[in-house]
Amino acid sequence: MKTGLEYLIEERGLTEETINHFRLNSDEKGNINIPIIINDIEIGIKKRMLSGDRKYLNPKGLESQLFNLDTLETLSKDKKNLLIVAEGEIDVMSLEQYGYKAVCSTTGVATNHDSLIELAEHVDALLFAFDNDKAGLANSLKVAQKCKGTENNIRFMMLDDFKDWNELVVANTHLEFDDMRKLIHEKIKSLSLKPLEFIRKYGDSSLYKLLDINNLQTIVDSDSNNLEYLIEGLIHKKTINLISGQSGVGKSILTQILAGTLSEGLPVFDEFYVDRSYKVGFLDRENGLSILKDRFLRIECNKENIEYIDLKASFNSTVISELKEAIRDFEIDVLVIDTLVRFQEGNENDSKDINEFFKLLRELLNELECIVVIHHLKKLSKDQKSNNDSARGSSDIIASVDTHFILEKRDDNLLTFKNVKNRLAEEVKPMTLELQIDELISLKFIGDVLPESIHKVSKTKKLIVDYLDVQKESDFNSIAQYVKDGGGYSQNKVRDLLKDFIDQNVIDLFKVSNKYMYKLNEDDNSYEVESIFTPQQNVLQ
């Protein structure tokens, strides 16, 4: 493993002379110690971590301190002096290595704007050149806004084809000292802009009180705010997702299984990949604790990764504040709400009440990876048997969510799960899920939903075979009546399917007392009717 100093030389292009000048050294773990020096006295140490999620460890009590401030003393000796304000310490070192004087804030680009601007009083030219990324641009624009009225010796720039000064240096280490200085000079000369010019070019929203303007190219080029999946091909991170269905269809079980698989980091429905395990917060007023206990004892899950939250009030600003604290304290990633109407303060049919509810949810989403809300569809009318996709309550419910999934019951333990709204324009095909109940409860992805006609043919075939398997032999009318009662096709289609079965030697046709009868061909076992359901105990009610 490389030491911190080896890392600086081999990967960041710093020379031993530069390392010695800034008094850099490594700690016992190989991390880099960056001394903060004022008047040649070390007043603190900032650490550059070479492993783990955290890149820097800032010294306490030095939040307003600038790095490399002593360089101002050398600037005063030059006739025409330029001071560059960079974003990070290694950028400062890279510039100083090639003869350019530079400073930065010890606590990052977002702080000490006023202290940095005051440096213009001590030099002939002050150049702000933060990183070429979203944060660097945003903070450059904030500083430029403050400098609009004092433009004489302050300039701003964004490196066009490099993220930062160190990246420019590393990419051109083959250049001699003078050629590198020339390259840096050309960048400064061609890219530097006065504050107002910089604001106009990059579209600073702070020019306007009621407008937030961001250049589209900046948004497209940014590494942040990229869409990421929580559940691959199904649900994105930073989204509010609505799962609705008729009463008793299995919405609660589905979300309980969803919570279980997320807590384990397992594929959802044994099909959709999850990148890691997630901590789930469960808000449930739809099921009693005894039901939840029984369900989660039979659902595969990491119980340490699921927090049951017993909320004492409906959603309001006070409740949301407490929930935010709980989410942070318990490190919750995903919040499940069962059901919307149980936690919403107000009337689900009132547009104003619904918008207030989802406004509070958006606040919570800032602390979470994802929110899943359970809701009901409108009740079916007497003439309807299925296919009602209208959610109960105000239309603003659907308008407020990012995705809307509907769960429908088909045959005993078969469910259809379909996506009827997706703000992210991602195609999620309707799918068939099979509820499996034994000692454990699970939902398995069976496949994409077949067209109704194909499904009904399969069902009709199974009804015919099942009936003849029990009755041994039967006339056509009895078979047709059984199929009709079981939800299969009518007589004409049954007749056609029987002919197909006879042609395939699955069924034999014979005559008894001038009456045609049908029976299964006992000599042919080559045909198996595709199973469309496995009779099991129904726990959806």
From TrEMBL:
GO terms for biological process: DNA replication, synthesis of primer. Residues 81-164 form the Toprim domain. SMART domains: TOPRIM. InterPro entries: DnaG_primase, P-loop_NTPase, TOPRIM_DnaG/twinkle, TOPRIM_dom. It comes from the Bacteria. One of its GO terms (cellular component) is cytoplasm. This is AAA family ATPase. It comes from Candidatus Dojkabacteria bacterium.
